[in-house]
From TrEMBL:
This is S9 family peptidase. PANTHER family: PROLYL ENDOPEPTIDASE-LIKE, PROTEASE FAMILY S9A OLIGOPEPTIDASE. Residues 579-799 form the Peptidase S9 prolyl oligopeptidase catalytic domain. Residues 13-296 form the Peptidase S9A N-terminal domain. Belongs to the peptidase S9A family. Residues 1-21 are annotated as: Disordered. The lineage of its organism: Bacteria, Bacillati, Actinomycetota, Actinomycetes, Bifidobacteriales. InterPro entries: AB_hydrolase_fold, Pept_S9A_N, Peptidase_S9_cat, Peptidase_S9A, Serine_Peptidase_S9A. Pfam families: Peptidase_S9 (PF00326), Peptidase_S9_N (PF02897). Keywords: Hydrolase, Protease, Serine protease.
Length: 807
């Protein structure tokens, strides 16, 4: 690593007695006092750690400047989004060189049949085109604030009234305001410190918003009449179950306000017909423990007797199948509340390997799944999960996950109605990316985006891969026309054919096959280049036996193989392929970029998630370790130049693998890491704790869960140097870089702060650094230029370990 000529000494944290005792287990926690952020000692320790980090990494200033220049030279800094039609306007966003935030603008539509986005000059000044209005300039709104985040931006149907919510602290609490766009003035209405996602009714007369409880959980819904004081607002819904979060949204046809309330495993949707905005919300389907569902209302025009419309409800649920199914309910014969499982089933996922699948629970999720009721395109899919179905004016779109990747299919509405009447599976057509013009197979993400209007004749969708910039496209499923609207532009000498991507499988210690995405620059990894394979690949690599016992190498190879390996593995969230301009600076220096799609995520469906949560959480850590060791055993990566990365729940993963297999990693970057997990999950008064019990288990009331979490929570399990020598034959421990924020409400700053204090203890001897943002939230600092500087800071540290000759 690069650091100043005179090595500074890490700050020594005070040790104050504090005993945590649950289920007969005593844990001495000498750094719990740091939880008091107003304690002068906490403030001084934060200041000293930031100074120590700055001094230690002063020698990387040149590399940071180089990386920042590489990034900014590749980015088209003055740009605009493709206009999107909503009611009578085309809305779009401009970004200008030198400005941190976007500027929201609009142009009036030409006529009711105007569905072709207008040509807008990307380099023109906001508001300079004939008819163009600036409706929200975030740069102007952010003046005087160190942090700025927009929590909602909603407009009335006539385009006159705009609701917006601002967070200027980083704590994810928003102040709501209503602006009259015809007069460019804010109304006196003030609704402060509420959750994100407030909604303005289409007529502009009412605002519905969510309030927060003392644990920062969105738990209530309030109704506000525009033009009145917030003191007169009425609470219209309260969620008393502390596991549940509340959210709001309009129905797709904007006829109803919907409340969605859910825990990690159970959900419920309530509806209010906006013909009577002061009426009561009614559950569409009463909640049932362990059942998740969503519902949308649509219609088939002129499909009923005498040319009447056929109203339908699309219900997405997992009452019968853990990987969800989609049912279509004829509303001429059904009225809410609906019953889950009624109607016509259009598609269902694979139940293989899921907890609630009876005899099929023993089957691996990668086993091909066939069901006669499914569309042809789903037959034989592995890890099949249904993710949603949307009905538009002239077409239907199905989204699903198979073979660890997202997929999308369409059918025109007339054909769908024909199949529905015939009682046969719908003849969906998968939307496939064009063949790469250089003949390189890619790992694509694909999915609908930016489709606010039911009336639009085309489907907008986005696709991209690790090596190709994202494309926004529009498909007319009826005419079969698929056109490019915009491709993200990379400036400079970028050429996609220089970069290869491949997905392989690693067989880990319990026999599971873990998908792994690999990205590299051609010509810099002979072993990967030599096989000639790119894209999805069924090649299986066996992880070494007992990878945690592999010795830390003593001699540098002639040709180091640097690797940046990143993971998450929680909440059923999938890490899908996506292009990153910042990643190019790593790849161009010979770094192999690897993403193990470990259990706990959703890449292979619900079974993949279930096998990496609660009392199976350790599978997440072991998968990551086994994949790391397998790639190193292939000669594709060198432990001495391997850096691992993860954030939030992925930061917990980083802390765990550092403790369990330190000799596989030279460095670990942990962003806002959840490393004092057990302490947090034991305290129901902390933000989000009770809602997290569905994910991690409840250690407060369940001794088995407590013992299990106690065995892996990183803070409690940091091995000192003597223990590392006994377990691993070396006292090596990876260098650690931690980032956090004092205003983070999801992972409190105290967790990483305590962890670093433990790592820096003399008996542990870890080379640990922490950078603490004073004005930021869980997602880091705001403003694109400052975010780019933060990325350059983090990448410089990683490169100083991965590539010895970094410059």
């Amino acid at each position: 690593m690069s650091f100043s000529a005179v090595n500074p000494v890490p700050p020594r944290a005070q040790r104050r007695p504090s005993d945590r005792c649950f289920h007969g287990d005593h844990f001495e926690d000498p750094y719990e006092w740091m939880r008091n952020r107003e304690d002068p000692a906490t403030k001084a320790y934060v200041r000293d750690q930031n100074r120590y980090c700055q001094e230690r990494l002063a020698g990387q200033e040149g590399l940071r400047a180089t990386l920042l220049k590489e990034f900014t030279d590749r980015v088209q800094q003055t740009d605009m989004s493709v206009p999107t039609r909503m009611h009578g306007y085309w809305y779009f966003s401009r970004t200008l060189k030198g400005q941190e935030y976007g500027v929201q603008c609009r142009l009036p539509v030409r006529d009711q049949d105007d569905w072709d986005p207008p040509a807008v000059q990307a380099d023109a000044a906001p508001g300079s085109m004939p008819g163009e209005e600036v409706i929200f300039d975030a740069n102007a709104e952010a003046r005087g604030h160190d942090f700025f985040s927009l929590g909602c931006l909603d407009l009335s149907a006539d385009g006159r009234w705009m609701l917006y919510g601002l967070d200027t602290r980083g704590n994810e609490r928003y102040d709501l305001r209503i602006r009259d766009l015809t007069e460019s003035r804010d109304l006196p209405d003030r609704i402060d410190q509420v959750s994100s996602g407030a909604v303005l009714t289409p007529d502009g007369h009412w605002v519905f918003y969510t309030g927060l409880d003392k644990a920062w959980r969105p738990d209530t819904v309030w109704r506000h009449r525009v033009g009145t004081s917030a003191d007169q607002d009425i609470m219209v819904y309260q969620e008393d179950d502390e596991r549940f979060w509340v959210g709001l949204g309009l129905s797709y046809d904007e006829s109803a306000m919907l409340i969605a309330t859910g825990s990690k495993t159970t959900s419920e949707v309530l509806m209010l017909d906006l013909k009577d905005p002061q009426g009561d919300f009614v559950p569409l389907i009463p909640r049932k423990e362990g059942v998740e569902y969503d519902i949308s209302l649509a219609r088939f025009e002129n499909a009923g007797p005498a040319g009447q419309d056929l109203p339908v409800a699309v219900v997405y649920h997992n009452v019968n199948n853990p990987n969800f199914e989609v049912d279509l309910i004829d509303l001429r014969s059904h009225r809410p509340p609906f019953r889950l499982g009624e109607g016509v089933r259009l598609a269902q996922g694979s139940p293989y390997g899921c907890e609630r699948s009876g005899d099929l629970a023993s089957l691996q999720p990668e086993k091909p799944y066939r069901d006669p009721g499914n569309p042809v395109i789903l037959q034989g899919a592995r890890g099949l999960g249904i993710e949603g179905l949307g009905i538009h004016r002239s077409f239907v779109v199905l989204t699903y996950r198979a073979d660890s990747l997202p997929h999308m299919a369409v059918i025109d509405k007339d054909q769908a109605l024909e199949d529905l009447r015939a009682g046969r599976p719908w003849r969906f057509r998968e939307v496939l990316p064009d063949q790469d013009r250089n003949g390189i197979d890619r790992l694509y993400s694909i999915g609908p985006t930016d489709n606010p209007s039911y009336q639009a004749p085309g489907l907008r969708y986005i696709r991209g891969s690790y090596g190709t910039p994202a494309e926004l496209r529009e498909l007319d499923p009826v005419r079969g026309v698929d056109r490019l609207l915009k491709r993200a532009r990379v400036l400079g000498d970028f050429k996609p054919e220089r970069y290869a991507e491949r997905r392989i499988l690693v067989r880990v210690r319990d026999g599971a096959l873990v998908p792994v995405s690999l990205v590299w620059r051609r010509g810099m990894h002979p072993g990967l280049d030599a096989c000639g394979r790119t894209g999805p690949d069924d090649t299986v690599i066996q992880a070494p036996d007992h990878p945690e016992r592999r010795p830390w190498p003593e001699q540098d190879p002639d040709r180091p193989a640097p690797m940046f390996i990143t993971g998450y593995g929680a909440y059923e969230i999938s890490q899908d392929p996506g292009f990153s301009t910042g990643r190019l600076s790593l790849l161009d220096r010979g770094v192999l970029y690897a993403v193990p799609h470990v259990r706990g995520g959703g890449e292979m469906g619900r079974a993949w998630y279930e096998q990496g949560r609660r009392l199976h959480k350790v599978n997440t850590f072991l998968d990551f370790i086994d994949v790391t060791a397998a790639l190193q055993a292939q000669g594709w990566a060198d432990p001495r130049h391997t850096v691992a990365n993860g954030g939030s729940a992925g930061g917990l993963l980083m802390g765990a693998v550092a403790n369990m297999a330190p000799q596989l990693y030279a460095g670990i970057e942990a962003d806002v890491p959840f490393v004092d997990a057990l302490t947090s999950i034991l305290d129901p008064d902390l933000p989000l704790t009770v809602t997290e019990w569905d994910e991690w288990g409840d250690p407060l009331h369940d001794q088995q869960v407590y013992r299990y979490m106690r065995s892996y929570s990183p803070y409690e399990n940091v091995p000192d140097a003597d223990r590392r020598r006994r377990l691993f034959g070396s006292d090596h421990f990876p260098a650690i870089l931690v980032t956090t924020s004092m205003n983070d409400t999801r992972v409190l700053y105290v967790e990483p702060l305590k962890w670093v204090a433990r790592l820096q203890e003399p008996q542990v001897g870890a080379d640990a650094l922490i950078r603490i943002e004073v004005q930021a939230g869980h997602g880091g600092i705001s403003g694109r230029y400052r975010q780019w500087e933060e990325l350059a800071f983090e990448n410089a540290w990683c490169l100083s370990i991965m590539v010895t000759e970094s410059r």
